[in-house]
Amino acid sequence: MAWADPKCLFPFIIQMAQRLVLRRFLSISPQKLSVPLVSILSKVSAAPCYPRSVVPLTQITVPASIRTFSTTPVCRATFNIQDGSDFQDRVVNSQKPVVVDFHAQWCGPCKILGPRLEKMVAKQQGKVLMAKVDIDDHTDLAIEYEVSAVPTVLAMKNGDVVDKFVGIKDEDQLEAFLKKLIGA
Fold this sequence. Notes:
Elements lengths: L5 H22 L9 H9 L32 E3 L3 H9 L5 E6 L4 H16 L5 E6 L4 H6 L7 E6 L2 E7 L4 H13 L1
Parallel strand pairs: 1-3, 2-3
Antiparallel strand pairs: 2-4, 4-5
């Protein structure tokens, strides 16, 4: 009895599920999609058991109006630091003032301060940038900038630390901190 063997049944179930998803996907008009089509197609193409009976993705045309590819650089006010050279390039050598948020995933106060600080930086409309540094991933930076507790926030201008605070601040205090940095 071949159908009772899970090894035979599993690939069949995967193929049927993929066909069902693809049929439902192809029946949706591009205007009704809430997720960009390109991200859906990339997930479907990454499926390990892609059935041969379905039309290959290379033959599906994506309307240009919903493509998300762009050649213009995106400048975000908030970014995560990847390594020491990234910190040097994006923070120390920055032409704009930078707020550096030293945080940790396990830190409760960091989870409160982080979004609050991001919101206040976004209100400054590009006058100041925000770099996020996870101290568990970048211990060397935490030691170099004498971070002994989290959250610690540094205000940097022209590569120098001009202000600093440790702990949670309310929005009014954060706004005053940012205004001082921009005006300093």
